[in-house]
Design a protein that fits this description.
2 domains, alpha+beta, two-stranded antiparallel ribbon, about 140 residues, about 50% helix, about 15% strand
Length: about 140
């Protein structure tokens, strides 16, 4: 991979190495060439008060690495444990594929890709919680 390409909409914000950058009036693309730069789209950010489900918890750990608020080496164990726990519940083929990809990305220190794979599980998790009858 030669770098990460971010496609930004008008006035979209992104956090890069602790600095918030806002796009101008037109769509644009940014090529991030620095390996291991901390990058987080703010539209994808999960706020601390939204960390209320298992998938969101694991996403949040990856997000903390991307924002530079967590050490990647310390977060690695938490991410791998969280993914393992999710794999015990999300057993369908598509979920397993995404969890396997997330694991590989954790091992390769590609935290943006980890977050992207895990965020794909959010709609599934939402459907599962919606299917549970409330007392």
């Amino acid at each position: 991979m030669t770098g990460l390409v971010l496609k930004l909409g008008p006035h979209e914000r992104v956090l890069i190495n602790g600095a918030v950058i806002e796009n101008g009036d037109k769509r644009s693309r940014l090529a991030i060439m620095t390996p291991n730069a901390h990058i987080l789209r703010l539209r994808d950010a999960i706020r601390p008060d939204e960390v209320n489900t298992p998938v969101r918890r694991v996403c949040y750990i990856a997000q903390l690495v991307l924002s530079g608020d967590a050490d990647p080496k310390e977060a690695r164990i938490q991410l791998l444990r969280g993914i393992e726990q999710l794999s015990q519940v999300l057993t369908d083929y598509d979920s397993r594929t995404l969890l396997s990809q997330a694991t590989a990305f954790v091992l390769d220190d590609q935290h943006y890709q980890v977050l992207k794979a895990l965020r794909s599980l959010l709609p599934r998790e939402e459907r599962l919680f919606a299917a549970v009858p409330h007392a």
